[in-house]
Amino acid sequence: MRFDVITLFPELFAPLLSSGITRRAYESGAVDVRFANPRDFAVGNYKRVDDRPFGGGPGMVMMAEPLHACLSQVLSERAVGAPVVLFSPIGKPLTHAVVERMGSGEGAVLLCGRYEGIDQRIIDAHVTEQISLGDFVLSGGEIAAMALLDAVARLQPGVLNTEGSHQQDSFNPALGGLLDCPHYTRPDVWNGLAVPEVLMSGHHGHIERWRREQSLRITAMRRPELLVSARRAGLLSNRDEEFLRTLDSSP
């Protein structure tokens, strides 16, 4: 799949593409990441890409024409049409479901805004989806684009050391969309704190049930709305419900 990133700062992505486990996805071409800089499509000696907002106010706004020329060039080079994603505070939250959809398709064009934002006419003409990392504001869309690319890359076959490892991640449908359980490694006692005995027992059935109950417990404490969604989707068993009834924090 191909992701075209439209950004004024492509150099920010270098560590993402060359470091860590997920670099395998980029080096192998499983996730093909390309860059286009709107400044390369700007005119004049100063290659200006921003200007003052109409109506006054602080900050600058990215101009429509350089973005339009950049987007048009990128879209013309793609063999098939692609969604154009803008990272914006008004977008829908980036969730595991969005990552799975992006990770199983043909990719997308990721538009990284800067300054106070981009000219609304570009959004109206080109953008098909807006995504937000959360209820806060970043200096630009690059960090959000990196988060999406990293999440998509780790879903690709052969990227993680253990195939299917991502199936145990928080929010994954394999867990019913719940949070992951705690994890432990050697030594079995550290600073007087011992690993739970069940994890040392070798009894896979008991271990699996302990992990499920811990996942249920943590989700009830930290993100109870996920339990509500899982219940509505029929992802909780009768045994899950029995355990939840023992918790004071169950929604």
Name of the CATH class of the largest domain: Alpha Beta
Measured between the Cα atoms of the first and last residue, the distance is: 40 Å
> Main sheet: which strands, in order across?
2-1-6-5-7
Helix fraction, binned, reads: 25-40%
Please outline the major beta sheet: 5 strands, parallel
What is the structural class? alpha/beta
Which band does the percent of strand residues land in? 5-15%
Q: In CATH terms, what is the fold-level topology of the largest domain?
A: Alpha/beta knot
Task: State Rg.
Answer: 22 Å
**Apparent shape:** elongated
Number of helices: 10
Protein name: tRNA (guanine-N(1)-)-methyltransferase
Domain tRNA methyltransferase TRMD/TRM10-type: 1-227
Catalytic activity: guanosine(37) in tRNA + S-adenosyl-L-methionine = N(1)-methylguanosine(37) in tRNA + S-adenosyl-L-homocysteine + H(+)
GO biological process, one term: tRNA N1-guanine methylation
